[in-house]
Design brief:
Radius of gyration of chain B: 23 Å
Number of strands of chain A: 5
Largest interface: A-B, 18 and 17 residues
Shape of chain B: globular
Order of helices and strands of chain B: HHHHEEHHHHHHHHHH
Structural class of chain A: alpha+beta
Strand order of the largest sheet of chain B: 1-2
CATH topology of the largest domain in chain A: Alpha-Beta Plaits
Oligomer: heterodimer
Number of helices of chain B: 14
Radius of gyration of chain A: 28 Å
Helix content of chain A: 10-25%
Number of helices of chain A: 5
Largest sheet of chain A: 3 strands, antiparallel
Chain lengths: 178, 393
């Protein structure tokens, strides 16, 4: 048995009488902290709405998942629904639609008619980004996602493209210039 | 009847009423609110946090861009917001309580705490000659000749509030808290009383105002460095007085259920102790009563040991008290000195709370009965021997 018997520390008489030395020792620690705080030497919590940590976010920060368009303004998503299947909390809901034959991107064949991400369910795991064969879904650095109702917390396609914006210079497999 | 009515001094009544209203409702109660605030901010700066710093005058409700912070320091209106919250919260009385005592208990905690401030001399005297008053007004609500006795008599009523709260709540945690509180208060009231016996022996006086005046003239009990305080007898008495002061302070911590002795509340063991079943304003009354007791206790300790309203080295600096001839500005300065000392004492309370861990129950009883009681008794004897051997003057 790996039992370690720990002896209680033997206290001296002035430590037992509590007021004499231990109170002083304790006060030295707490007041030391207080003095350092009052001098402004202690690093404390960020005052959130006034100060933000946006400029300190790491490169790999996983914020809100968004949809992106490429440099020709084509939506990258081809509604393969892989992200919908991989999503652990089942936050993504896609309704695919066909691209009509008179469209310049008709050869892509499919694009999402509706693309909803429920931000109440989303756990920011980044699996959708990982699994996307078209590099259409990206996790951006937005973290303050708020809304006053459940319906507001569901990001629809327009909202997703609005946050996502344009991503250039990735795979351009549907481009003519390839 | 006419004789009785004729004997009533209306000026005296008016002045007393003014003193009661100003001291209790305009000084002590705001001080209670702000000592809660100081407690929270103090705890925060000792624990490397920020504390409540957001509550400002809500000008945004009136359409302004920003809330107004007072003195540029955020959060100074936190106590008002807390009070408002307590008033607006649901006042819930559980089914299983004894309603009458359940309602009585919070009042029994708050009222004695406020009553004791009647005998505290919060200043020397105010020369209100410009108001047409012939005699200077003494800065104490009731100039009783039994000051400390009155304080102890009323303060020990405070335990009834806690015991009733614990008993009428009819559930186990409040009950345990109440039992602990009663035994703790009884144990520590002994040392509290014995600790001031040497003080009363030195002054031969039970009037707190006269005790403070004597300390102003001859040096504080813990700082006898001017007037008669420099006589060999008083210098020798310094030792028992310091012992008395330490014992009095520790016993006062126990009396007011403050940190190393907060076993009646003891949130890690007893949920919230005796006020577990209370909510809204009834809970707030317990809370405020605790802080009011702390302020009054600090006031008593300051009056007995730290010279009350007297300014250190006052007589040497020409800031001493001369009965009947103290100018108004000096009277006001004395009042300010008293409250400055009380505030320093409260800050000490707060510092200790966030420093010392809670006692175990047997340690608490051991400290009370085996150490403080004996030391206090021996201290009385020591004082008597010194006073017998070395004449004070």
């Amino acid at each position: 048995m790996a039992t370690v018997v720990v002896q209680r520390p033997k206290l001296k008489w002035h430590e037992k009488a509590f007021v004499l030395s231990t109170l002083w020792k304790g006060l030295k620690i707490t007041l030391g902290h207080a003095v350092r705080m009052l001098q402004g030497k202690t690093k404390v919590t960020m005052q959130y709405p006034e100060q933000k940590w946006d400029d300190q976010l790491p490169e790999w920060y996983r914020g809100a998942p968004t949809l992106v368009t490429d440099e020709q303004g084509r939506e990258r998503c081809v509604s393969c629904q892989l992200c919908e299947f991989i999503c652990p909390p089942k936050a993504i809901k896609i309704i695919p639609s066909e691209i009509p034959s008179d469209d310049p991107w008709a050869k892509v064949e499919k694009r999402p008619k509706e693309f909803d991400i429920d931000m109440i369910r989303c756990i920011y795991c980044g699996m959708c980004e990982e699994v996307c064969p078209e590099q259409a879904i990206f996790l951006r650095k937005d973290y303050a996602i708020t809304g006053e109702s459940r319906a507001e917390m569901v990001h629809n396609k327009a909202k997703l493209y609005e946050i996502g914006g344009v991503r250039e210079g990735l795979v351009n497999k549907w481009n003519e210039l390839k | 009847m006419t004789v009785l009515l004729g004997s009533i001094d209306l000026t005296f009544l008016a002045i007393s009423l003014a003193k009661i209203i100003v001291l209790t409702f305009m000084v002590i109660l705001p001080m209670v609110a702000y000592s809660v605030m100081a407690e929270r901010r103090g705890a925060a700066i000792m624990q490397d946090r920020v504390g409540p710093n957001r509550t400002n005058l809500p000008l945004t409700l009136l359409g302004f861009k920003k809330d107004l912070s007072i003195f540029g320091m955020g959060g100074l209106l936190q106590p008002m917001a807390d009070g408002l919250k307590f008033i607006l919260k649901e006042d819930f009385t559980p089914k299983h309580v004894r309603t009458f005592y359940f309602w009585l208990a919070p009042a029994l905690t708050m009222v004695p705490a406020l009553l004791t401030c009647a005998v505290l001399p919060f200043g020397s005297e105010l020369n209100l000659g410009f108001l047409g008053l012939a005699h200077p007004v003494k800065a104490v609500i009731a100039d009783l000749n039994v000051g400390p006795l009155y304080t102890f008599a009323i303060a020990s009523l405070g335990v009834y509030g806690i015991v009733l709260a614990g008993w009428s709540s009819n559930s186990k945690y409040p009950f345990l808290g109440a039992v602990r509180s009663s035994s703790q208060m009884i144990s520590y009231e002994l040392s509290l009383g014995l600790a001031i016996v040497p003080v009363l022996m030195v002054f031969g006086e039970l009037n707190l105002g006269k005790i403070a005046a004597a300390q102003d003239a001859d040096g504080w009990l813990v700082l006898p460095l001017w007037g008669d305080g420099l006589s060999p007898g008083r210098l020798l008495l310094w030792i028992p007085m310091l012992i008395s002061f330490v014992i009095f302070t520790i016993a006062m911590f126990a009396e007011t259920n403050r940190m190393p002795f907060d076993l009646p509340e003891c949130e890690t063991e007893l949920v919230a102790g005796y006020h577990t079943e209370y909510s809204s304003m009834k809970f707030a009354l317990f809370f405020l009563g605790e802080y009011a007791a702390m302020i009054i206790g600090s006031g008593l300790a300051v009056t007995l040991f730290l010279g009350g309203w007297s300014i250190p080295f006052g007589p040497l600096l020409g800031l001493g008290y001369t009965p009947g001839a103290t100018p108004l500005w000096l009277g006001l300065l004395h009042i300010a000195t008293f409250f400055a000392k009380v505030i320093v004492f409260i800050l000490f309370f707060i510092g200790v709370r966030w420093t010392v861990p809670r006692f175990r129950y047997d340690q608490l009883m051991k400290l009370g009965w085996l150490w403080m009681f004996e030391i206090a008794l021996a201290n009385v004897l020591l004082t008597a021997v010194i006073m017998w051997l070395v004449p004070l003057k």
